[in-house]
Amino acid sequence: MQNIVIFGASGHGGVVLDCLEREGKYNVVGFVDSFKKEGRKQNGYEILGREYDLPFLMERHNLYGGIIAVGDNWTRSLLVKKILSIAPSFNFISAVHPSAVIGKNVDIGMGTAVMPGAIINANSIVGDFCIINTNSSLGHDGTMENYSSIASGVCTGGGFTLGEFSAISVGARIIENITIMDHTLVGAGALVVKDIESHVVAYGSPARIIRKRSVGEHYLSGNKSEQTRTEFPLIPNNF
User: Fold this and answer.
1) With a threshold of 0.85, does the pTM exceed it?
2) pLDDT band (50, 70, 90) for residue 56
């Protein structure tokens, strides 16, 4: 099997690891994380170093590629840029848990994670670096644009479109033929019955727009380390 690494040794990283182990397509050699001590074990795997160590790690471990296990959509995109600035030829792989149900004519982009119990129904398109979380579903003919995510327990009707960097929070419900545009956040437990514009926060039943939302605004609880990650320059002065 080809060797890979996981970027991000958080709780989300543990779920992605479980997907990869159960899928059995790749050999995980360890984690890469700039905010945890090198050599420490996480879920039985060693933290091999930081993103800036990637060229050395690629050679040492004969890496085929890796996957980013960072829950926040915008932070995930920054880390992709950071990795490609350090290793332009790096290969991003996807992970699909064996318990996920993938329908006919489904296209899943690179760097995407499909978690346990997720359902992607027929003729759907999932872009690059997306997350379809535990027991969530994307209805038939659905589209998730790059860097979008649906959280655990989300249910979407057919013909749904989720824009780039947008996120649907835990347990939300979305009726058929709805479009949610870019950089928008739908709150936990919301019921979406009409289209939602870009750059807003919406929640409630039925969901309504509460306020505007800025690009890159953090939305996950407990993501301090992910937020800190974005404050580092893409390339250190001594690289």
Assistant:
1) yes
2) very high
Distance CA 222, CA 60 (A): 33
Task: Place 228 in a pLDDT band, splitting at 50, 70 and 90.
Answer: very low
Place of tokens 């545009």: 181
Radius of gyration of the chain (CA): 18
Cβ–Cβ under 8 Å, residues 80 and 98: no
Angle at 38 between CA 59 and CA 73, to 5 degrees: 85
Widest CA span in the chain:
53
Residue pair 51/79 in contact by the 8 Å Cβ criterion: yes
- Phi and psi for 227 in degrees, rounded to 5? -65, -40
Pairing state of beta strands 119-120 and 101-102?
A: parallel
Q: How far is CA 124 from CA 23, 59, 147, 157, in A?
A: 21, 37, 16, 12
CB of 120 closer than 8 Å to CB of 106: yes
DSSP string, 189-232: T-EE-S-B-SSEEEETTTTEEEEE--TT---STT-HHHHHHHTS
CB 33 within 8 A of CB 8: yes
